[in-house]
Design goal:
- The complex is a heterodimer.
- Chain A is mainly alpha-helical.
- Chain A is built from 13 helices and no strands.
- Chain A is globular.
- Chain B is of the alpha+beta class.
- Chain B has two domains: 2-231, Rossmann fold, CATH 3.40.50.300; 244-365, no CATH class.
- In chain B, 25% of the residues lie in helices and 34% in strands.
- A six-stranded mixed sheet of chain B has the order 6-7-8-3-9-10, sandwiched between helices.
- In chain B, strand 1 (11-19) and strand 2 (25-34) form a beta hairpin.
- The chains are: A mainly alpha, B alpha+beta.
- The interface between A and B is medium-sized, with 24 and 30 residues.
Chain lengths: 284, 366
């Protein structure tokens, strides 16, 4: 077998194969529940199970009717439109504030930077239901509850930790003497940021932004608390769909969301490789 | 008078102090004038304050006390990007997302210099460091020595009058380093720019500079031309830091006409030049360069004091012989002799007599 040296003991051999089995099981539990949705979303019946026709691979057992329902049903269309309006705006806010926060917090002279960082990251750690309830009470007081901007701000708060973490990670590898060099060569701080720092941390900013986008696009708990019927997003509609209608359209929507997420994650990976090449970590 | 004043005092540090934590001073009361067109090296061990001085001049650190003047004007309140000082960083600090040509064009772009003039200057600067063909490459595609040249070209491309260099050759191998030392000094003198060079490598300091400021403990210990620094160190730190030195501890017995006799702790008497001692009975550290020790008695002055020495080790180094001896109770006394046809190779265990001219043996502070 590849990877096993000829002098491996019995225990080493056992562990070698056990390791592969464990990895296989982990992948199975993570991916199988998602994969199984995809064929089910093409079900010709209004059921959540595989019909005998589907199992026999009979073309009549499959159809696009749930996709059709999604694209024609006004409830789903409204939900999609809401998601499309909310997620990009929340992402924009997350990226702007998160990037600025990450740059600020990576300056060594900032006081209490660890504490500040912990506070900004907390939406990721605190149970979502607690953040949601807190936001509900706070936003009700200031009159943001049930408004478009309320949901956008709430989602931005949830997305900021992702941006901070990814941008901080790129800043760790960022050579501070580059900003000094730029200043020395005559560039003012704004030019230095735009021409030197931003291009180099851009991959971190973009992948943070994509995470923030996915967070907002997939989020259901906070929007249930902070939003009103006017801000019903796709996940919210899926949630009610599950509870009230048990319509397989949910499976079609889920398949679409999984596809979008997969594309976004692939984008992140491509960007990461590009940034490594730019920094000269691997030959271009 | 004004013109000559700024020519001799192009860069001036006036009673500059620097403290990072408000308690300990990293730079203590620094006074230094650098003339226009001079190549000045700040040499010292790490933590001696030399890099801090350079950073204050570049504007990345602010002086806690005192004033720094550039061309007669105080620059304490001028931000780094308005100082117009070129700088070569220790790790080169080339922008990895830009090509070599874009790196060089950067300082010209921020100065709003037109495209044609920009390209012309970039090409000229690249030619200056023999890198004309490399404009389209990225820094990651260049070797260490090539990156060093680009960093140098970038610091010179906007024609600053003052260029700072922070251990720019530290990452290069020995041969390349020696070659670059030569190129940098030539370029600096050709262009007539004032250069402040920071290094902890004494060979670099001696071979490149017009004057060397030896830093230790936040102070300039000696500021002098390389030959003066090597041959006439003013205190025991400089004597030991620059080049190799044999040191012997003793007490001043008599002082006369700038020369003195010292009785060593082992009881022997030697002649020395009184540099940093003023009174009889004072403790002193006597220092002698290994190449100034004479083992051929006939070349010594009449009546010169000599010491008995036991040869411990003979090392053949090619151009020189290095002999380790036990002298006055110390067994790390080194003598260097040139590999000449008539030179004797001393064998371990042999007892010889050695001496020196009083001028070559300096009695310094203990």
């Amino acid at each position: 077998m590849s990877g096993l040296p000829p002098y491996a003991t019995f225990t080493q051999k056992l562990w070698h194969y056990a390791f592969r089995v464990i990895c296989g099981i982990v992948f199975f539990f993570l991916i199988a529940p998602i994969i199984v949705i995809v064929p089910l979303s093409f079900n010709a019946q209004d059921f959540f199970t595989f019909t005998p026709e589907m199992l026999a691979l009979d073309p009549d057992g499959y159809s696009f009717k749930h996709y059709n329902d999604f694209f024609t049903n006004p409830d789903w269309q409204q939900a999609m439109w809401n998601s499309v309006r909310i997620a990009p705006m929340a992402t924009l806010l997350s990226v702007s504030f998160g990037t600025l926060a990450a740059i600020g917090l990576s300056q060594p002279h900032v006081p209490f930077r660890r504490a500040l960082m912990a506070i900004l990251i907390s939406p990721m750690i605190v149970p979502l239901i607690i953040s949601a309830a807190g936001m509900y009470f706070f936003y009700s007081r200031v009159g943001l509850q049930g408004s478009y901007w309320g949901v956008v701000l709430a989602h931005a708060a949830l997305g900021i930790p992702f941006v901070i973490i990814t941008v901080t990670a790129t800043l760790v590898g960022f050579d501070r003497s580059l900003t000094r060099a730029a200043a020395n060569l005559g560039a003012n701080p704004v030019t230095t940021f735009a021409k030197v720092q931003m291009p180099l941390i851009l991959p971190g900013v973009i992948s943070g932004g994509l995470f923030a986008f996915i967070t907002s696009f997939d989020e259901v708990v906070v929007v249930l608390f902070v939003g009103s019927a006017g801000q019903k997003t796709l996940p919210w509609q899926m949630f009610t769909g599950l509870r009230e209608q048990i319509s397989p359209t949910i499976l079609a929507v889920a398949t679409i969301l999984v596809t979008i997420s997969a594309i976004l994650l692939a984008t992140i990976e491509i960007l990461r490789r590009r940034s490594e090449r730019l920094r000269g970590m691997s030959p271009g | 008078m004004g013109a000559s004043r700024t020519a001799d005092n192009f860069v001036v540090f006036e009673k500059v102090q620097k403290s990072y934590d408000g308690e300990t001073l990293v730079v203590k009361d620094l006074n230094l004038s650098i003339a226009k067109g001079e190549f000045l090296t700040m040499l010292g061990p790490s933590g001696s304050g030399k890099t801090t001085c350079l950073m204050m001049l570049a504007g990345f650190e602010t002086a806690t006390h005192g004033e720094i003047l550039l061309d007669g004007k105080p620059i304490n309140n001028i931000p780094p990007h308005k100082r117009g000082i070129g700088m070569v960083f220790q790790n080169y600090a080339l922008f990895p997302h830009m090509t070599v040509a874009e790196n060089l064009a950067f300082p010209l772009e921020v100065r709003k210099i037109g495209k044609t003039e920009r390209e012309e200057k970039v090409q000229r600067a690249l030619g200056m460091v023999q890198m004309g063909e490399f404009g389209g490459r990225r820094p990651a595609q260049l070797s260490g020595g090539q990156q060093q040249r680009i960093a140098l070209a970038r610091a010179l491309v906007f024609e600053p009058e003052l260029v700072l260099m922070d251990e720019p050759l530290g990452a290069l191998d020995k041969q390349l380093r020696e070659h670059m030392q030569f190129e940098i000094t030539n370029l600096a003198h050709e262009l007539g720019i004032t250069t402040v060079y920071v290094t902890h490598d004494q060979t670099e300091a001696l071979t490149m500079s017009d004057r060397v400021a030896v830093f230790d403990d936040g102070r300039i210990q000696q500021l002098a031309a390389p030959d003066v620094l090597y041959e006439e160190p003013e205190n025991s730190f400089v004597a030991q830091f620059i080049g190799e030195n044999n040191t012997l501890l003793g007490k001043v017995e008599s002082i006369m006409n700038g020369n003195c006799t010292v009785s060593l702790d082992s009881g022997e008497i030697i002649d020395a030049k009184a540099v940093n001692v003023s009174s009889v009975g004072e403790r002193t550290l006597v220092s002698i360069r290994p190449e100034r020790v004479e083992i051929n008695k006939s070349r010594l002055m009449e009546g010169a004091h000599t010491l008995k020495a036991e040869v411990l080790e003979f090392i053949y180094m090619g151009d020189v012989f290095r002999t380790r001896l036990r002298v006055a109770g110390k067994d790390d006394f080194v003598v260097k002799t040139r590999n000449a046809p008539d030179q004797v190779r001393l064998e371990a265990g042999k007892i010889i007599e050695l001496g020196w001219l009083p001028d070559d043996c300096r009695a310094l502070d203990a």
